[in-house]
Design a protein that fits this description.
about 425 residues; alpha/beta; Aspartate Aminotransferase, domain 1; Aspartate Aminotransferase, domain 2; 2 domains; seven-stranded mixed β-sheet; four-stranded antiparallel β-sheet; 13 strands; about 35% helix
Length: about 425
């Protein structure tokens, strides 16, 4: 590992994004030494500017009261629009295709109400086998709500027995068998367990060829990979902002609705007053006149104090550049693979796609016999990772605030842990 430490230091010295680390609070141990924080896939770190962004709105509230809707430094009435351009840039969308509102699973339900329109011939939903449980619960409940049997209507996309990851041929096999019955394909853009970044364009193209609606949960993708949602013609997507987008625990969610759906008409969906024509919103008309954009899916006025941390984070993303971050992320995971291959142990298996285009920041470490002692060893040695049942330690070197040296040091810690536990 002497070779990799020199390489790590060299990569850090040439990293043009290294200064962004100073914009974040890094958790420290009792000796005031920074921990290795590899948990941005679960909760991103707090930007140091976040408190001032929130304080600005608190000050305007104290100073102006209700007049802050129009007279605040960042007026509250259109406040959510200050997030739109940056968020659209992150997910590869037109600004009118994106809106920030609600929490993740609420938005998932709102989009399923709109886009899951089953009929007796086409009523099935396709999700991946290792879907995050919250998505499974939501999808099953929607199937039951529409009067179908979840055991019949829910299909699972999974890899062949000899593979760890899903490839495009797996998509072909299930579509060839069930494509005419599938109303909706709804996959995680990046799988929470394996970290695999699916071929979203291929899935959209093939799904649409079979007449399926195609949407993605980008909870583990937004701020991590480049989904290019408009260009791949995804029908819809949603994502949280508390992971790679660093907006705080339980932060709001983003929504994408492709422009081809903006003229929604009177088709079924759930509607509220913040989705109605802005010029008529306060005329209190009883007839809903939809905004012809993703904003038409809004229900309520924006929660300003919850949106301020998103602004703080998005301002950093705009300065760093999403393409630059993606390039560094690929470089970091390639270096991590190199380091992990030097770990000599049959107690673990490193789970990460070899192809850069098939992975994000996350590296999954499968622990044989589901033994959590290695995870606890990492905790005791100031590595912040997370454990996902039944047997995976997840780490995510995040390009905004992690370093190549941290990756090297992590592999030294885990190698020592494997030899001592």
């Amino acid at each position: 590992m002497e070779n990799t430490i020199e390489l790590a230091r060299g990569l850090d010295s040439k990293d043009h994004l290294s200064s962004f680390r100073d914009l974040f609070f890094i958790p420290k141990n009792e000796a005031n030494k920074e921990k290795i924080y590899f948990c941005g896939n679960s909760l991103g770190l707090q930007p140091k500017a976040t408190a001032s962004y929130i304080q600005q709105e608190l000050d305007d509230w104290a100073r102006l009261g209700v007049d802050g809707h129009l007279e605040a430094k960042h007026p509250w009435l259109p406040y959510h629009e200050t997030l739109t351009d940056a968020m659209a840039n992150i997910v590869g969308a037109k600004p009118e295709e994106v809106v920030v509102m609600n929490s993740l699973t609420v938005n998932l339900h709102l989009l399923l109400v709109s886009f899951y329109r089953p009929n007796p011939k086409r009523y099935k939903i396709l999700i991946e086998e290792s879907t995050f449980p919250s998505d499974i619960y939501a999808v099953k409940s929607q199937i039951r709500f529409h009067g179908y049997n979840q055991d019949d209507a829910l299909l699972f996309l999974k890899p062949r027995p000899e593979n760890d990851f899903i490839d495009n041929s797996d998509v072909d096999v299930i579509l060839e068998k069930h494509g005419d019955e599938i109303a909706l394909i709804m996959l995680g853009g990046v799988n929470y367990y394996s970290g695999q970044f699916y071929d979203l364009k291929y899935i959209c193209d093939r799904g649409h060829q079979y007449g399926c609606t195609v949407g993605f949960d980008l909870a583990h993708g937004a701020g991590n990979i480049l989904p290019e949602l408009h260009d791949i013609e995804a029908d819809f997507a949603m994502w949280c902002t508390y992971k790679y987008l660093n907006s705080g625990p339980g932060a709001l969610s983003g929504v994408f609705v492709h422009e081809k759906h903006h003229n929604w008409g009177d088709r079924p969906r759930f509607e509220g007053w913040w989705g109605t024509n802005k010029s008529n919103r306060f005329k209190m008309k009883p007839v809903f006149e939809s905004i012809q954009s993703a904003e038409g899916w809004q229900l309520s006025n924006p929660p300003i104090l919850a949106m301020a941390p998103i602004r703080a984070s998005l301002d950093i993303f705009m300065k760093a550049g999403m393409k630059n971050l993606r390039q560094k992320s690929i470089q970091m995971t390639e270096f991590a693979i190199r380091c992990c291959k030097e770990i000599n142990s049959d107690k673990i298996k490193i789970l990460i796609p070899e192809e850069p285009e098939s992975r994000g920041c996350q590296i999954s470490i499968v622990v044989k016999n589901k033994d959590k002692s290695l995870f606890h060893y990492l905790e005791q040695h100031d590595v912040v990772a997370d454990w996902r049942e039944p047997d995976v330690i997840r780490i995510a070197p995040v390009p905004l605030y992690n370093t190549f040296t941290e990756i090297h040091n992590f592999t030294r810690i885990i190698q020592k842990g494997l030899s001592t536990i």
